[in-house]
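Support request, please re-run this one:
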Amino acid sequence: MSRLEGPGLTISAAEIAWENGEREVRGWDRHGSSPMLEDVVGRLRIGIHWADRYESQSSMELRVAVEKSEVQASVLRISDGDLSKPVGFDVVGAFDRLTESVVGTREVLVKDSGPRRGQLCVVFDSTDRVSPVLAWAFTRPSALLLVDLKRSRPTSPIVQRKPPRLEEMQVDHSSLDERGLNF
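Re-run finished. Output below.
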């Protein structure tokens, strides 16, 4: 679990590894933040895929969330020049500064020659747990919220590496004994 926090914003995201080996990042809980974020909780996930060109690397497509009037939010393909506009800071620079990842088109990074070759993606080490959550945070909740020009713009993201506190997590305590141990 990871948490994105800012003025008037708290949203949790989860990186999920499925039994079949597939992975994804999705919104988990908006913690009372803007109802606009309901569309990114449980929806608008981003798949994490093996980057076949690189041993032990994964990739994620970078498409930004857009609000559609009267319907659920959707995602939109954008160019690398437009990637930073919705969030108000240099997204490629933030990836460079915070993680060891590379942003570019699928054609350049994973040698895709198909119809999605112009799609932006990020490539990172498969054991990296920060890059997937940053990709989700930059392109899903941040992109939706920061369309509102009255909202304050972040100057740069900060990654705080601290474990979640038990009282902040939704945990079923019914199977714990008085010492906090499972039966």
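The beta strands are 2-6, 9-17, 23-29, 46-50, 57-61, 63-66, 74-77, 101-105, 120-125. The chain has a mean pLDDT of 80.
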